[in-house]
Amino acid sequence: MTEPVSPLRLVAGICLGLLAVTGWGLFNVGTEIAQAQGFRPQDLTLLRYGVAALVLLPWFLWRGLRLDQRRLILMALLVGPAFSMSFNLGFRLAPLAHAVVIGPGTSVMVALLLVRLVDRQQISALRMVGLALLLAGLIVIGADRGGTAKASGLWAVAGDLCFVVSGALWGVFSWLLGRWRMPPVETTGGVALYAGLMFLPIYLLVWGLPDAPHLPWLQQAMVQGVIGGSGAPAAFAAAVVLLGTGRASIFNALVPPSAVLMAIPVAGLQPNGLQWLGVALATIGLITSMTLTTGRARGLPPAPHASR
């Protein structure tokens, strides 16, 4: 069973979890806006890890140097440049509604498979029902090819595959985070630092800084690095500390509807009926598949992202 939580910790944990959900929702919508402004996937990758590394560097130097650096490097390889590039490339090719469901949905399924096949833990019948609903939602959304210019033909399929890749990478990362018992905040800082060190030389040598106005770059530095790369993960990590992984993981299921709803006033994106149905099915599936009926120490770790 899950350990009881005092009312004060419960309220604080819920507030932090909702703050993380809001941050990830804004991050997803901000990425959609960035693509419309002409930002390249590599630009957003640089901002995500470069700015997050600067924000979290003091904390990492204080608390993170004691961690196994080889594990941090492996995690940076999983959810570093390859993850961000595939995620941002998917945004260029497929609609926002695809991103906020396919990525988190794939993360949950990959992590569950690893828990079952590697850790040999049983998956409850209720969780299997949740996975079935989640898969149904992904199929509905993947079948949608209308509503936006980006939602047609093989390009949208390629974008969906990018979200599958990024979701799978995050699923493996989430599983390792729980398996290795890595502290979330220090791990987030270490991953951002190593990912930034990996990507910065490649970015400067291959692409270089574009000649672009400063204001959009400052805005996206806030969205990508401060909100999406450090603020939301840190808030979620604090919620995990206060509530435990089982309770806090439920907030991941709120990211898809949060991002889709925020896109209406912020980006002017109106999902069609099929997208609404897919988001609803997948969100119900996510909530069901992350039931709080188990208190096992190595249960499914949380997966943020649309993002996570």
TrEMBL record:
It comes from the Bacteria. Keywords: Membrane, Transmembrane, Transmembrane helix. InterPro entries: EamA_dom, EmrE-like. Residues 12-141, 159-288 form the EamA domain. One of its GO terms (cellular component) is membrane. Pfam families: EamA (PF00892). The keyword Transmembrane applies. The chain crosses the membrane at residues 7-27, 47-65, 72-91, 97-118, 125-143, 155-177, 189-209, 221-243, 250-268, 274-292. This is Permease of the drug/metabolite transporter (DMT) superfamily.
